[in-house]
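new request in #modeling-help
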Amino acid sequence: MPQLNKDARHSVTLTLNGDEVTGYAEPRMLLSDFLTHEIGITSCHVGCEHGVCGACTVLVDGTVMRGCLTLAVQAEGSTVETAENLASDEGELSELQQAFKKHHGLQCGYCTPGILMSLTAYLKENPKPTEEELRDMLSGHLCRCTGYVGMVKAVLDYCENRTD
Ligand code: FES
Ligand code: FES
């Protein structure tokens, strides 16, 4: 009887930020590791690696997902968006990114890509959140640097003045 090879690598093809990419992943490989080490993107950071901090957040088929709680093989055939997708091809920051820059919402910087991806999905559903709603949403991302002050200011300003 043939032995099951648990370590065998599988081909995984997905659409990443508009481009089809293919890499290889063992069945247990996390999407965050796949995107970083197999594909080479730099924005999918890992902190806790168990779904709590939010640093690894990406969009999979438009849904907010933790890269560290998703297996790479599960993303086969899906559309994945990371923070690399937010700026224009010419490198111009999105309006949300510009607001983060203006209000020092970047803070430590390590958590920022995941926060921006969560906000991207959230603000589509809730284009004008109250500060309380926004703080509630942001509580899904652990930040221990400033109490979210800059981020909150940035998002409220963006929501007030956005043209995108
Ligand atoms: S590394 Fe994924 S939620 Fe913390
Ligand atoms: S934004 Fe990273 S710890 Fe606050």
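bot summary: The domain at 10-83 is CATH 3.10.20.30 (Ubiquitin-like (UB roll)).
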